[in-house]
Amino acid sequence: MSSGELTAVQAALAAEHAAVYGYGVVGGKIGEARRSEAREAYDAHRARRDELTRAVRDLGGKPAVAAAGYALPFPVTDADSAVRLATELEERVAGVYSDLVRASEGDRRGAAAEALREAAVRAVRWRGGSVAFPGLAERAAGATPPATSHT
According to CATH, what is the number of the domain 3-140? Predict the structure, then answer.
C-alpha cells in the first residue's frame, strides 16, 4: 500500500459523498419516468461509499466524512437539469475511479475498475450517448473541479 493509494481511496470516498448528496437533489427534481433509475444510482453510490469507508480504515486511514452540503455545478430546477446533474455526477465519479485504478493493485484495482465501468454506464444512460474514455476526456478538456463541500 502506498500513500498514493490511500489518497486515491479518500478522493473516491469524497466523490461518493458528493454523489450521494447530488442524487438527493436529483431525486427531488427528476421526473416520474426516471425516478427509479435515480433511486438505483443513489443506492449504488451509498454502497460504494460504505465500501470505501471500510477500505480507508483497512489502509490505516481515517475516512473523510460527508460535508453538510455541496455546491452544485449549476442550478437544478427541473427534470432536465436533474438529468444533467446526474450525468455530471457520474462523469466526475468515473474520473476519480480512473485515478484509483492507476493508484491501486489487485482486488482494490479490480473494484475500482468495476466502479468506473458502472459510473460510465450510468453516465451513458443519463446522457443518452457515450464518450470514448469516460472520466478522461472530461479532464483533458479542463472540466470543472469536483463538487466542493459547502458547510
Answer: 1.20.1260.10
